[in-house]
Each structure stands twice: as structure tokens, then as C-alpha cells.
Amino acid sequence: MKLASSRLGKQNLSNRLGRISGLLTACVASGLSLLILVFLAVQLRPDALRETSRQTVRIYCAAGMARPVEDIVKAYNAQYGTDVEIVRTGGSGELAGQIKTEFETGLLGGADIYITADDRLLDKAHQSGVIAERFSVAEQRPVIAVPITSEIPIGGLGEMLANPEIKFGIASERAAVGKLVRGVAVELNVLDELEERKATDAENVMTLAQALVAGSLNAAVIWDTTVSQLNQLGPEPVLKIAAMVDATDQTKSEIALGVVSTTKSPTACLQFARYLTAKQTGQPSFEKYGFSFLAGDDWEQVPEIHLYCGSMFTPVIETAIREFASREGVNLYPRWEGCGKLVAAMRSIEDEELFPDAYLACDDSFLLQVQEYFHNPVQVSRNEIVLAVSKSVSQVVEAPLDLANTNLRIGICDPEFSALGSLTREFLSGCPVPFNDKSKILSKEDNLYLLIERQAVVKADVGPTLISQLIAGGLDVAFVYRSNLEADPKTLQAVNVFSISNAETAGVASQPWAISKSTRNPKLMQRLYDWLVRAEIKTQFKKNGFLDPIGD
What we know:
alpha/beta; D-Maltodextrin-Binding Protein, domain 2; six-stranded mixed beta sheet
């Protein structure tokens, strides 16, 4: 009995130790799993996003909008622990010249962001490669401002010039407002008089505004927003608007932000730019100082983007899309499938948050099926349907009609699920088939597509599936896009390729890009489009056999 009790005690102790050991193992495993999940979660976040709080963003800002930008910078740094700062203010042209010099000389530690009162300067800098991304911010108008106590009547630019007692100042041509007032003067044919009579042409509007307050000028051409800003500095307004420079009120300037192409902190710059241009975070500060705000996308620190792409684009733009997501610091989820499946998926989506923000379709016909959900499309490229024949096939096949009475294994794409399949059906259905009474296959009701469809041993969702089976020896012939073949040089070595289409009309797919009407990030999607039609990406399109990439 003692022995039995001893054995039973040892067994119970062993069981308890086993349970404890199992519990410890489970805890350790659970802890390791948690650590792994945390590690993966960190790794899956965009690398650039994790760096943004440690990166300095240096802003060159036109003097006229420094105050709202300062407010936004302060709020942004306080909320996210970032290091964004305005390091230089001045006239828009002066700053543009400095940034160009930095770009051309390779100077380090210069501007990361340029905020200008004249978007035309930004466009010019973009064309020369100095500026990468561009953001619209707000609008302002040139006005003739006078001290609040002034009783001198000024009805417009001509009236100001006609009164010799008015001592006025304008900004230099290096400032946006200086360019605009000279443009109006040219239209009124008074430019020479304007230049002769000006008491000063200051480098920026703030210098002119201060001269008005000090009483050294009777009038000055500055921004309407400058008047608003000066009047908020003290308990009483100090300036007033006597007249618009342009009586029609059509002359205005668009304030814009540009990310300098040589910045070492593109993700930090882009995140701040999205914050500054968002309705929730940027608009209050700009409107406080009298600007007409041009709202950008809704503010999210890490936007989530869904992109639907026809599978033909995978080898061309997949890498570029990953690069864009990393640069912007966003989570971008592309879905690569046949366009029929993509359209079906769109129609079944109930959660608007999961609807694609943009759609790059394999052919116009598939975008047309869901056009009501998208803005007007932009054509990106074209792609030709070709006949790919394995070099192992001994008989001569150079055209679809050669397949009429063969035992070859033919592959086509499903016309319901893919643009390639739909266009193949459309093209071959229009090809006449000579009727032969001796043939057991042909009948007067047949067209070439019905004949080939009956002989097809594979009906795939996408072209790459057909290519794989063709190379593996499972198919002898396949109807595919030229881009499906030219994506891999090894494929071209294994097949003969025959053009079957009329490159101007039938047998050619047109690829449109469209942005969703429901997206919260239309500006971001426009930047993605701009990213995908850059010169180097257009080269990839051509290399992969596409026709007419955008801009060519």
C-alpha cells in the first residue's frame, strides 16, 4: 500500500509538473508569438513613416503666407513630435532662384519644401526637375491698400496713377504680386507710367505693408490676405483695401507647395504637405488670415489606398507602386486580376472603405461597366493581341485561320473574366470562316471564335496563365497580349509571335486610368498617376510591348 501510495504520489507530482511545464511552454510560446507579431507589425509599416519623426523638414516660404504656415507647423510638431521649421522667408521669385541654385550646385542643407505665392513659379521648377510633387494650397488677390485713416479716393490702378499726389509702392518682379500688377498694367497700357511713378519696388509684400503702416507710402499693391494679417496684429485695423488691382476681379494668384526633388526626407515632407493642405488641419489657419483655401485630401497620418489593376500591368508598375507607397508613407493595396473579376468585385462591395480609390483597366470596355463610380478616365496605353505559337509545333501556324482544322492544343482567356478574353472573342467573331462541305467541324453558322473556342483546351482568367502553360508544354497555341510575352525575354525564345490585329482598330486594347468619385484621397491618387506616367515608367511600358504610353 505504501508503495502504491508512493507511486501514486509520484504520478500526481509528475502530472502537476507536466501541467506546469505545459503552461510555461504555452506562456513562452505565447510570448514569442506576441513578439513576432509586434515585430511583423513594425516591419509592415512603411519604413519612411517610422523615420518621419526624426527627420528635419526645412521650409522656404513666401513672406505673404508665413503666418498661417507658422501656425500649422507649430500644431503639427506639437501633435507628432516632428521637426518641421520655416528657415527662410522672402519673395516667391527670390526663393525660387535660391532653390534652383541649391539644386544646380548640389548644396546640402537647403530647402526641403518650397511654398510660393505664384504656382507658375512652381510649375516652372517642376518642369526643370527642381520640384517633385506639387500641392495646391490657397488663393489670394492683388489689391491697392491704403492706411486705415486715408481719405484719398482710389478707384483702381489707372486712378492711382492719374493722381500725382499719391506716393505708392509695388513689389519687384521677383515677387508674385509684382508680376501680377505689371500684367494688369500691360493690359491697361500703363506699364511705363507704373514703373516711372513707383516710389519703391520692394522684395516682398510685408515690406510694403510696413511702409504703409509707417506712413512712408500713401498706397501699395499687396495681397488682400496681407491686409487681413496686418489688421490682426493689434487691437485696431491699420490698413484697408481701396480697390482691386483688376476691376474684373479675375486676376489672382494660387499659393502652392512643392517638395524639392533633392530632399533627403521625402516621406516627412509629403506627410506634412498632406497635413497642411487638408481641410481639417490646414483650412482653419489659412482662412483665419483671409486666404481662400483650396482643400486637399482628408487628413490621415497613414492613408489606406486600394488600387485595382488589370493583371497585364503587374510586370510594368508593381515595383513603382511599392516605391510610391514607401515614398508617401501610405498603405497601398493593389489588386491584380482579370478585369472581369475586378468589375464583379466592385459591384459586390458593400463597405465603401474597401472600394478602389482608382482603377487601371485592361480595356475601356471594362471601365465603361462601372463608369458611374469613377471620374472621367485618362488613356494610359494600348496593348495588342497576338498569336503565340510554341516552337515545338511542327505544322505552320501564322494566323488564327490556320487553326481551323488542327488538333493543336489552344489556350484562350475567358471573355467574362478578362479583357483579353473579351477582346479575343470580339476580334475573332468578326473573322470570316470559309465554309467547306467536306468538313465535319465547320458550318454556315460558325465564326472563327466559336470554332477556336470549341477546340480550346484551356480557358484562363489572365494571359500569364496561358504563357506559363505554353512554356511548360501544356499548350501549343495561345491568344495573349504582346506585353504578356515581352515581360520575359525567355518566353520570346520559346515561341513564335504573330500579329493578328489591325493596330488602329480591332484586336487592340486601350488602357484607361480613372479615380473613384468616393475616394477620400483624390489628390494622392493624382500623384500616383503622375508617378506611374513618369519617363522611366513609360520606358517600361514600351519595353514590355505596350503601344503609345501616355504623353507619346
